[in-house]
What we know:
Blueprint: E1 4-5, E2 10-13, H1 20-30, H2 43-46, H3 52-57, E3 59-64, H4 67-81, H5 88-95, E4 121-124, H6 128-131, H7 147-150, H8 153-162, H9 164-169
Parallel strand pairs: 2-3, 3-4
Antiparallel strand pairs: 1-2
Amino acid sequence: MRAAIDKFRLVFLHPPKTGGTSLYTYFSALAGEHRWAGGNDLPKHLKTELTEEQWRDYTWVMTVREPFQRLVSAYKFFSRYHASGMEFDAFLALAVSDYQDRSVHWNLPQVRWLPDHKVPMIYKCEELSAKFPDMKKVMRPSKGPSWEELWTPKRQKIVSKHYSEDYERFDYAAPSPTSF
């Protein structure tokens, strides 16, 4: 995966299921490169893919998403492609366990994508279409149950505990019945 778009001097950090593919695709199309983002490398892995100039001088961009919504998105993806028929509670237990799919890192807290050497520009998935109205052309519609259909206080407690750093660092409030 190429994480950098040279025309705009940007490096993309892409925690899975945060809208990163849509944002990267949008910017690469603006740059005339029309590339698919692919991959969800952590910053420590990107160092081997980037030039010294890209690592040091480019602006770093990262997408994040409210953790419960991100987990529901991951569930829908896994249900469609990897674990058809898995119940959400089984998926949630797997997500907050020590399980690691080394190729995707789908269940890691998003703070793990923050690089040590600089602070990236943070874009919240929930705000992308408002910030970049033309981006709707590259966004894929969601299929399957909404996060509101899967939300319960018990599930939120599990997610809030496991992703507490994400809630704090990215200034998210845990959803509640009054938020939908």
